[in-house]
Structure formats: C-alpha cells, structure tokens
Amino acid sequence: MPFAESDGARIHYELAGQGEPLLLLMGYGLSGDAWTPMLPLLAGYRAVIVDNRGTGGSQGALEGLTIDTFAADAAAVLDAAAIRRAHVHGVSMGGMIAQSLVLARPDLVHTLVLGCTTPAPLRFMADDGAASIELFQAASLMRTDPQTGVDRLLPLILSPEFLAENPSVRDMAGALVSAAPIDEAAPMQMMRAIADLATGRAWDVADRLGEIKVATLVQHGSADRLIAVEAGRYLADHIPGAEYQEFEGAGHAYGLERPLEAFPRMMQFLAAHPLPG
C-alpha cells in the first residue's frame, strides 16, 4: 500500500493502468475508491488515485485543513510516485484542489479537467441553499450508517430522472462507501477547508484564473444542486483557452449520468495534449 509523506501526514494513493499519468482528485467526503466505476473509461492512462486526508487509507491531522493543504498532499503523492508532470482531473472539492495545485505547483500539471467545481464556493452558491447542509449530514452518516448516508447523498448529486431510471445505482454507491472509511471529523473539517475558516476567509481563486496557463477542459451539469452551473461557465470564461462541456439536465455527478458523453470528450482532450516525450 503506497503512501506519500506530507507535512506529517501519510497520504494513501494507488496506481492503476498504463500510459501517461492522470492524477484523480475526488470530492467532499469520498475516498479515491469512488473513482472505481470510472476507471475502465480511462483506459490508456496511468491513474494516480488519491485518498484525501480523512478518507480511505490516508492518515494525518485534520485540524486547520485548507484546500491548499489538500493540494500540497496531492503534490506529495506525485513526488512520491516519481511523477514530474501529470494530467490532473478533479471533481467538486477535488476540482478546487486541482486549481490550488496548478496555481501553487504549475510545474506538476500538464492539463486540467475540472468537473462540477468552482473557483469560489461562496461567490457561486447553488440556488438550493439547503443542499450543502444535506451534503454534510449525508457525509457524516457514511461512517456509522453507510446506506442511509448514500440514500441522503444520491438525490443531491443525481437528477431525479436518472435516479428513477437507474435504481441499481443505490447498491453500487452503498458498496463503494462501505469499502471506503471516512474519519469521524472529516466532514466538518472538509467543510471548514472549503470555507477556509482557518484563515478567516472563504477559499476563492476566481481572480487568479488568468494565471492558469495549461490546457483546461471544464465540465458541468446544468441541474447541479451543489455547485451552480454558473461556476463552471465562469471557469471556462476566465481560464485562458479553456474548453467547456455542459450536460443539459444532469446533476452534480454528471460523469455517472452521462458517461458516454463526458469521458470520450475528456479522452479526446487529453489525447490532443500529450505529455512531451
């Protein structure tokens, strides 16, 4: 089981597949195991799958966490895996981490794929103000009552139409969550990191997006309850040269709802920007 050392923490990661490295950064309250259903769609790349602090096999202090802490952990993983430069795909909170990583360590990032994420969570609040509270409650239940936690989570990240047509997603999500432990303190500390309470200001890089000089693809569902689609549009408009793909009617987990639209576009994007030989 490989680990990276990062400021006193041990960050667990896994490598899967062959090809150019693709760092995968998962969102709030989920471990790297949540990438498992998507891995077959990423064939041709060597996935570098990170357990964010507080999830999976990662161990380390959670007090005072910031998005920049998670980004430093991701950089430590690439260093530990002897990867000098990688494609980076982050979703939701993982997309925030990816933005922090490219701004702090642009030498490590070759391309960015930012999914269902935001450069400033408090600037781009979703219309459904209760959704973030429900997300925290769902994540808090994952540790003690995984299936109930999943039942609370799925309506937040998937459209009602998709849930009605695909009831089996509940069993798949329950199995993934049960296999991926989460620290009791992680849901609250991750929320604090997103709000950046440790520094007394909200995490916000909206005014720094022009500094991102790598090829970028932004993907977002138009019916996202957790992060307003306007955040994705803003990213695409303000990262120089960014490409944008919007999924009409899809929720936060657009990759589960529209995999045959999202992943082929992502793979085409990555193939168009190969790492130098």
Strand order of the largest sheet: 1-2-4-3-5-6-7-8
Q: What is the CA-CA span between the terminal residues?
A: 29 Å
Segments where pLDDT lies below 50 for 5+ residues? none
Order of helices and strands: EEEEHEHEHHHHHEHEHH
CATH homology superfamily name: Alpha/Beta hydrolase fold, catalytic domain
CATH architecture, by name, is 3-Layer(aba) Sandwich
Structural class: alpha/beta
Indicate the overall shape: globular
- The number of strands is 8
CATH class: Alpha Beta
CATH fold node name = Rossmann fold
Structure write-up:
It is a single chain. The chain is built from ten helices and eight strands. Strands 1-2-4-3-5-6-7-8 form an eight-stranded mixed beta sheet, with helices on both faces. β7, α8 and β8 form a beta-alpha-beta unit. With about 280 residues, it is an alpha/beta fold. The mean pLDDT is about 90. The protein starts with a strand and ends in a 6-residue tail after the last helix. The longest helix is centred in the N-terminal third of the chain and has 14 residues, at about 65-80. The protein has one domain (about 5-270): 3-Layer(aba) Sandwich (Rossmann fold).
